[in-house]
């Protein structure tokens, strides 16, 4: 493994891509805490808070397929740079909204929530383009036999920066000054864009496909995916898993404040437990996958995710929630490392952007619906079950949902 790491980091393009992922995900980690926490400063209504998460994830449902066609038409490196610069400008817009607000909490915060939703939607749209291009470009940067190692290292650094460093840093920054985490977020996007701009890729990494209609080019990806049922099943399973996960995570800021009694800094530290699971998963899971194989690795990941959500819902205690988040994220990284490498190895390069985007349409398109579902469940259950049980319910439902997905995989998944 040590030799593989040396060979990867000896490649200039990989070093730049790895560094850009680290910096960009530091910003993502900061905003991952700062956005929902800002929403809770504006309102305590779970539906309005869920609306911000819905707006952030809705672009995955709306724009995944067009983004895939776009990725296969243009220079993927340039596309990543442009998307990060758009995110830089939009984050500056979030800072403007905060500075225009009166002291928190806001008596009538609905207009500010709606403005936050609009900016979150645009930021999410840029993220769809950037992330699809970034995942598509990796096979042009490393050799195919290095994909598990490269994905594991990139997932690990993304978890370190996005969940291990970013959230606690955001907690301290937002306690110091509400705009501070968003200022740091903007700087990281600009830094990531500069690093990607310095990459030099061969023309094969930006294929010049014959220009036809977007619909015709999208159909090529649809036909390929439809003809490879195992990858289609993985995409649908991922969509269900993500819907369960975002349903629970959307409520986590309220869960942390009201049931665990955490302030912003303490909540950020709690999220580091999840990040530690991601880091461990990114480093260890390539070896697990090599030993167990693709299918058995996934059959291990699914019940671990079920156990993680169930622990949180059954025992709302910080000393239980922290290891549960660790277990769930470790399992999630195992799923990601195995399935992403599986796709990158099998999808033809000239279709990689379109098929990846279709995969994400199924896999990530359920995120906005899951976010709204989380807010609705709490709002609907609170009058009958009380606030505490209503906040625990999404985690119990997520655990049951993961159990059903696990049974489906045991019966249907053949890799």
Automatic annotation (TrEMBL):
Keywords: Cell membrane, Membrane, Transmembrane, Transmembrane helix, Transport. The chain crosses the membrane at residues 48-67, 88-106, 112-129, 234-255, 267-290, 297-314, 320-340, 361-381, 393-411. It is found in: Cell membrane. InterPro entries: MFS_dom (IPR020846), MFS_trans_sf (IPR036259), TM_effector (IPR010290). Its main location: membrane. Residues 231-415 form the Major facilitator superfamily (MFS) profile domain. The keyword Transmembrane helix applies. It comes from the Bacteria. It is a multi-pass membrane protein. This is MFS transporter. The lineage of its organism: Bacteria, Pseudomonadati, Pseudomonadota, Alphaproteobacteria, Rhodobacterales.
């Amino acid at each position: 493994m040590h030799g593989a790491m040396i060979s990867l980091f000896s490649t200039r393009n990989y070093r730049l891509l790895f560094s850009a992922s680290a910096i960009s995900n530091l910003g993502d980690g900061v905003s991952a805490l700062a956005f929902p926490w800002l929403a809770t400063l504006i309102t305590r209504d779970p539906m309005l808070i869920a609306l911000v998460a819905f707006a952030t994830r809705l672009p995955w449902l709306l724009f995944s397929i067009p983004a895939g066609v776009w990725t296969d038409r243009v220079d993927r490196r340039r596309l990543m740079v442009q998307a990060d610069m758009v995110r830089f400008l939009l984050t500056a817009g979030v800072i403007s909204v905060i500075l225009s607000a009166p002291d928190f909490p806001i008596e009538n915060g609905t207009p500010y929530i709606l403005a936050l939703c609009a900016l979150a939607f645009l930021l999410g749209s840029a993220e769809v383009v950037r992330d699809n291009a970034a995942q598509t470009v990796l096979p042009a940067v490393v050799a195919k036999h290095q994909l598990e190692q490269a994905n594991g290292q990139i997932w690990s650094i993304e978890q370190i920066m996005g969940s291990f460093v970013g959230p606690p840093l955001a907690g301290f920054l937002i306690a110091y000054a509400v705009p501070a985490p968003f200022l740091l977020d903007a700087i990281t996007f600009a830094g990531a864009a500069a690093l990607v701009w310095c990459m030099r890729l061969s023309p094969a990494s930006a294929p010049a496909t014959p220009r036809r209609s977007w619909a015709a080019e999208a159909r090529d990806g649809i036909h390929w995916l439809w003809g490879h049922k195992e990858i289609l099943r993985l995409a649908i399973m991922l969509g269900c898993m993500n819907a369960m996960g975002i349903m629970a995570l959307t409520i986590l800021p309220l869960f942390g404040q009201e049931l665990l009694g955490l302030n912003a800094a303490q909540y950020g530290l709690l999220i580091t437990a999840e990040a530690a699971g991601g880091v461990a998963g990114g480093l260890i899971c390539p070896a697990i996958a090599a030993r167990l194989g693709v299918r058995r690795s996934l059959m291990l990941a699914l019940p671990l995710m079920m156990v993680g959500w169930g622990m949180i819902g059954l025992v709302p205690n910080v000393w239980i929630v922290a290891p549960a988040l660790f277990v769930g994220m470790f399992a999630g990284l195992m799923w990601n490392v195995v399935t992403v490498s599986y796709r990158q190895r099998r999808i033809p390069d000239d279709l990689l952007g379109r098929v990846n985007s279709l995969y994400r349409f199924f896999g990530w398109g359920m995120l906005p619906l899951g976010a709204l579902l989380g807010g609705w469940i709490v709002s609907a259950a609170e009058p009958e079950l009380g606030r505490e049980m209503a906040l625990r319910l999404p985690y119990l439902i997520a655990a049951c949902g993961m159990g059903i997905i696990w049974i489906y995989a045991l019966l249907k998944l053949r890799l």
